[in-house]
């Protein structure tokens, strides 16, 4: 099991089992969502994920697929928590920065980098990670 929270601690969550994949996403939406160069994600089955405290707020964005990318965040401190994508209805993309106990390191392994076409110029590919110019 892994757990995490927002910065102020109002929202807490956990998931069980191993992630389906660990991923960085360099798309422009993720850059805006984090205020950084990419998002770092632990992708887990939705049935293994649950919010254990608090009620996140949501904001919907339309992805390149034309389908909804639902963003969950803390209404108090604004922390990005996780996303649920209509194109991936069986998984939750947990933002790794909110994970407890150093789990933001993704166990030292990034499985895939998405939207490498939008990767900022000062970053380089992660060795051993699958490189996808877009999603899928």
Write the SSE topology:
Elements (H helix, E strand, L loop, with lengths): L1 E4 L6 E4 L5 E5 L2 H7 L4 E7 L3 E5 L3 E6 L5 E6 L6 E6 L5 E5 L16 E3 L15 E2 L5
Parallel strand pairs: 3-10, 10-11
Antiparallel strand pairs: 1-2, 2-5, 3-4, 4-9, 6-7, 7-8, 8-9
Task: Give an overview in words.
Keywords: Lyase, Metal-binding, Zinc. It comes from Knufia fluminis. The chain has 136 residues and is mainly beta. The protein has one domain: Metal Binding Protein, Guanine Nucleotide Exchange Factor, Chain A (Beta Complex), CATH 2.170.150. The protein contains 1 helix and 11 strands. It has one helix at 28-34; strands at 2-5, 12-15, 21-25, 39-45, 49-53, 57-62, 68-73, 80-85, 91-95, 112-114, 130-131. It has an 8-stranded mixed sheet. The chain has a 3-stranded antiparallel sheet with strand order 1-2-5, with no helix packed on it. The longest helix is centred in the N-terminal third of the chain and has 7 residues, at 28-34. The chain is globular.
Count of discrete domains: 1
Structural class comes to: mainly beta
- Work out the helix count: 1
Order of helices and strands: EEEHEEEEEEEE
- Could you tell me the strand content as a percent range? 35-45%
Helix percent band: under 10%
Largest sheet: 8 strands, mixed
Protein name: CENP-V/GFA domain-containing protein
GO molecular function: carbon-sulfur lyase activity; metal ion binding
Keywords: Lyase, Metal-binding, Zinc
Domain CENP-V/GFA: 2-116
């Amino acid at each position: 099991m892994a757990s995490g929270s927002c910065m102020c601690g109002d929202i807490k969550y956990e998931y069980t089992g191993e992630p389906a994949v660990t991923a960085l996403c360099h798309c422009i939406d993720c850059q805006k969502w984090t205020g950084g160069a990419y998002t770092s994600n632990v992708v887990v089955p939705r049935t293994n994920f649950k919010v254990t405290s608090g009620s996140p707020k949501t904001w919907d964005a339309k992805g390149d697929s034309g389908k909804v990318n639902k963003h969950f965040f803390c209404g108090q401190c604004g922390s990005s928590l996780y996303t649920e994508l209509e194109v991936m209805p069986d998984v939750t993309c947990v933002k790794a920065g909110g994970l407890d106990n150093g789990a933001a390191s993704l166990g030292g392994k990034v499985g895939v980098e998405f939207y490498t076409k939008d990767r900022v110029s000062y970053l380089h590919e992660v060795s051993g990670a699958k490189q996808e110019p877009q999603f899928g």
